[in-house]
Design a protein that fits this description.
The structure is a single chain. The protein is built from eight helices and nine strands. The chain has one domain: TIM Barrel (Alpha-Beta Barrel). The chain has 309 residues and is of the alpha/beta class. The relative contact order is 0.20. The longest helix has 25 residues. The strands form three sheets. Strands 1, 2, 3, 8 and 9 form a five-stranded parallel β-sheet that branches. Helix 4 crosses helix 5 and helix 6 packs parallel to helix 7.
Amino acid sequence: MAKPKPQPMIARDLAGYGEFPPDPKWPGGAKIAVNFNLNVEAGGELTLANGDDSSEGTLNDIGFGSKQGIRVPLVESAFEYGSRRGVWRVLDIFREFKINVSVLAVARGLEQVPNLAHAFVERGHEVVSHGYRWIDYCEVAEEIEREHIRRAIHAIENLTGSRPIGWMTGRPGPNTRRLLVEVGGFLYDRDSLADEIPYWVLVGERPHLVIPYSYEANDNRFNENSGFSTGEQFFSYMRDAFDTLRREGANGSAKLLSIGLHDRLIGRPGRCTGLVRLLDYMQTFDDVWFCTGAQVAQHWHKQYPFQSN
């Protein structure tokens, strides 16, 4: 493979793999890899209860903007729905279909609901660090972000018994990837929307694997009904993405379909039906590799190890 371009958080790479990306050679000759990512963020969002100076105005699903210097109980309750009820509904659905997912867990939230961390491990899911807080790190001081990375690793290891090998901040800053590599121990991060298969970057002199995520194949479009209003719309959109990428895989250019879910969004009873229909549909095909981010990273490290030239 070609030598990786500079780290995209520092220098942009608009060319990527070009016209002919490499064949991922997914296990079993799969024509498509599908990775579900369940975001668990309650308790880590902006709130005065966490020492912040404002409430959470992002993805609270009820259209409440951020308010300075005051707690907003209804917003907090929207997040609490995810950890109290929605997450269990989604976990039960994936257990029914015997699919393991990547749980993108905000460590500050898991610290407050440790039985969730135990359930993720018991059910065989991968726990990915989604940062210590669910905040935008673009303007967070480097020393604070470094400390948050350390605290997130420590918390998840204590709660699950294993150190996370995957990372996704979600709203990374310019220092994020460099700080992750500085700490070491990560096989990959998800803080990119730039492609549909993994790619290597150089962070300083160190190679680092990026597995692209998606804010498009994502139930965040349920937020305030801004994209999806019904489970049927979610199913239809994700089915079309799956069909397109599977067709490309059949033509020799296999991809990874990374689907983002949130316990407080897809976990609602009127929405989760779309996820059930999608899993029913996908499992009618025998050339699909359902995988976690860790499995993708391990496959890529083995199949396409970093090459300096």
